[in-house]
Amino acid sequence: MDKCIQSSPIDTRRALYNNIVLSGGSTMFKDFHRRVQRDIKEIVDACVAASDAQLGGDTKSQAIEVNVVSHPIQRFAVWLGGVYHYRFWPNEAPSLEK
Questions:
Q1: Which SUPFAM superfamilies match (predicted)?
Q2: How far is it, in rounded angstroms, from Cα 44 to Cα 63?
Q3: Top CATH class, 2-92
Q4: Domain limits of the chain?
Q5: In terms of Cα–Cα distance, which of 13, 60, 11 is closest to 40?
Q6: How much is the pTM?
Q7: What DSSP state is assigned to residue 70?
Q8: Residue among 9, 43, 7, 37 nearest 22 (CA)
């Protein structure tokens, strides 16, 4: 996840770190969202500390907030997204005919 966020434009990274949304059945393991949040936060804090050290310690970077969103229906989020897309944009749905 961190590599994906780091590859995005720099002005959107804080918002992306603040809104990581889990989806799919494999994300339903107990405390998975807490583990992901802890791991991403450690990576981000290490990057911020390295950046501060590279600048010589004259300036202090703002902390980056990491928030991982978990929801009881995340197991079905992908399916619900497909249903929503087909319901409101049926002409854009992929065709199974060749």
A1: Actin-like ATPase domain
A2: 9
A3: alpha beta
A4: 2-92
A5: 13
A6: 0.70
A7: -
A8: 37
